[in-house]
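Handout, section 4.2: multi-component inputs.
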Amino acid sequence: MNFEKPSRRNTDRSKVSRSRSPRTSRLNSTPLFFKGTGSIKNPSETPTRSTPQHSEKEDYGPEYKALEWESRQLIDLEWYDCEEGANTMKNEDDFAYREGVAESRREKKVKLGSLKKLERMQDNDKWEINRMVSSGTIKVHAKDAYDEQDEEHRVVLMVHNIKPPFLDGSIVFTTQLETVQVVKEPNSDIAMLARKGSAVVRIVRERNERSKMRDKFWDISGTALGSMLGVQKKIEEDFSKYDDEGNLDYKADSQYAKSMGNFEAVSDFARSKSVKEQREYLPIFSVRESLMNIIRENRIVIIVGETGSGKTTQLTQYLYEEGYTSYGIIGCTQPRRVAAVSVAKRVSEEIGCKLGDKVGYAIRFEDCTCDQTIIKYMTDGVLLRESLNESDLDQYSAIIMDEAHERSLHTDVLFGILKKVVLRRRDLRLIITSATMNSQKFSEFFGNSPVFTIPGRTFPVDIIFSKTPIEDYVDAAVKKALEIHLQQPPGDILIFMTGQEDIMATCVLLNERITELGPNIPKIRVLPIYSQLPSENQARIFQKSDLRKCVVATNIAETSLTVDGVRYVIDTGFCKLKVFNPKIGMDALQITPISQANANQRSGRAGRTGPGSCCRLYTDTIYREDLLENNIPEIQRTNLANVVLLLKSLNIGNLLEFQFMDPPPQENILNSMYQLWILGALDDLGELTELGKKMVEFPLDPPLSKMLLEAERYKCSSDILTIVSMLSVPSVFYRPRDRESEADASREKFFVPESDHLTLLNVFTQWKNNGFRSDWATNNFVHIKALRKVREVRAQLSDIMKSLNIPEISCGNNWDVIRKVIASGYFHNSAKMKSIGEYVNMRTGIPCILHPSSALFSLGYAPDYIVYHELTMTTREYMQYVTAVDPYWLAELGPMFFSTKENFQEIERKRQKEAKNRIIEELVASKNKEENKGQEDEVKGSGQIVMAGREPTPRRTPRIHPSL
DNA sequence: GAGCACTGC
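Output:
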């Protein structure tokens, strides 16, 4: 509060009659500053800002409005008089003016005496308004709320944008406006089609919403059908991970391997032949000698090999047999966990050892290796982590990067790192495997390394392009599938779709049309598959069936899993891609045309077990001219904060000079460096700080690791550990389609009113208090799988904390401290209330709203300041996981963005001065207005107040004392 | 008053 209230006002109170006219009593129940529009206005604000809204007159009438406005001036005048008047009015020239003001004041006092007490009632009114806001009767608008806090007890945060010196004027954050181009030609037919989407899907969606037969639409893959087909539900708990005290041993041996293997097909070939025979049957065996020669002579070799050539399983064994393991071990990276585990399992069988002995694997949460291990399969992320602790990767004598053409973020970073390691270590062999398309590029990147091609064993695939561009890819795919089903010889069909909704619509339509054709038509088994589908339903695509199978899949079937028996592929030409949109600063999933590489990969799926054909639902011309040759590598379209942190900790001074195969846009790097600087991981020179060095240790996003480390200071590390772990898994809340309200009610029981983060903590704590029981989870609509994952993550993070000597302490119920720690990692995602449920990002001004699942959503009042975990753009921009924060915290924790007013006394003094000047001007103007009766009549007639202060007042311009 | 391409540490 900057303008002190005059003491005189208090003394005046006693003189004012307490009787109420009907009008004033109404005013009392609906406070003066409560506008008819349903917003709050501050009573003591300056006249310029108190222009009543048009709708007001409907409630109170113009006369009241005029009175109200004048009464405010009166109050303002009084305050002016007693606070500064004496100084200001000393000048003789101002005498007449002062007289005029005083006269006006006396008149008004008489006329408006009864209204004056409204000011006295201010506190009462505020209380009432608070009640009304909390009951949801009225809405609070941001500006008004701002004004109120401006004048009263609330804090005002100043927003600014201080840049780190090392960026030196470089572009950061919101100024980067270009979206990464993921389409070759944005105006091409196929790009337009991608934006348009499928009309049939919309029809199916609407139809199902209308008929409320959503169950049919959504639960086609549901449990009823699943159990009918004999899919066994796995209920038994796996306790092998827990030690005697019930603690979680997340590194327990071969977890993943145990849970796998259920669906592995054992072919007749495998049954009838010995391991040796099987190995010699593989295409790679025929080129073994020449391959080994090339590897012996070159330190880096690029190997091109189709799937099924045996490179993944044989290469490691060849190197072992050639003696490369005499001075180190052989590492082989895979982009996926499943692949790393299953290949390791297969190779251990071929060599004839126990998994984890000579042959092992390492993925997150599971290190299935020992001192004897000489062949180690792992995910690329694991190798990247290892390179942090051991920058020369000394334990390896050879590293194979398998499936490198997939260009995952980790692979791309490893490329740059390994290239340097090979220069330093003359004894290290590096082998990169790639698809045919970009082998040349790989070779060039690695200093023109030789490319060795292994003949594949795939069958020819007929490619059939559409003759004309199609209008609706879902409709066209359904027609094509029917055509194949009715006309072509046996063999399963695989359709590539973009997402869940497309897939379900396709399944529904396909089933419908088959039924329509009558009973004489052969049946078909339509099977959806996407990653979100429960795993028991996913497994159905591998089951044998007498009917022709038609698998409708997302990109998951392109690389992650192989459906055998597919002879026909239908390729819609689209996929969903996560694209970062810098304009709004968030990622969005959008339907985009695939690349030529995608298309080839998809068609290849038809030739796994025999010759096949692939129908592409786009023309030859589109394929050649409108599709990109390769995908945009992940590294070019993602947030690089973690990568930057990692490279910084590898002592790579200038990141812009790091050797990327496809360098990410410079702005992305700078942007990430800026984000790290904000969090305190980089100093003003762009070097890693002590905090940053610790942050690298955690496999977490920088804001989350910042939270964890900050928690030590506030003595709530244990609680934050839980929250961070909960945030690292998909939502734990289970909301089945037919029991939404039940699930919602259950979720609300966990709510902590001011914070979704604390709600998460609450869920975990209660689960823990109930002995980590799975039936507790099921009864409370919580995903048990997700919770178990939380435990795993938590155990891993806890280990890292121990290694950093950070004690695990819980703060008990001191939840304010926890909220503050959350703010320490997420102050950059802070938003200020605009109205209930609606916020604007403090820095960017982007409007964002509370997600209906948030604990704050149905709270009844809206905290002024909040931080959120992330923004998702679906139907609207929703904030996910929101916590109310104190604005002082934001200023304390994020000084580069925020400061409270107190820090800016200079600015504040100036602002006060301006405000006072304005009041005086308004008063003068108002007096002028009174003199002009005609004008006032006009005002009353129109029912609006025209602020006379806006008009020039040449006669009297008040002189302002220099001290003001 | 609400919806999920695919990975990974």
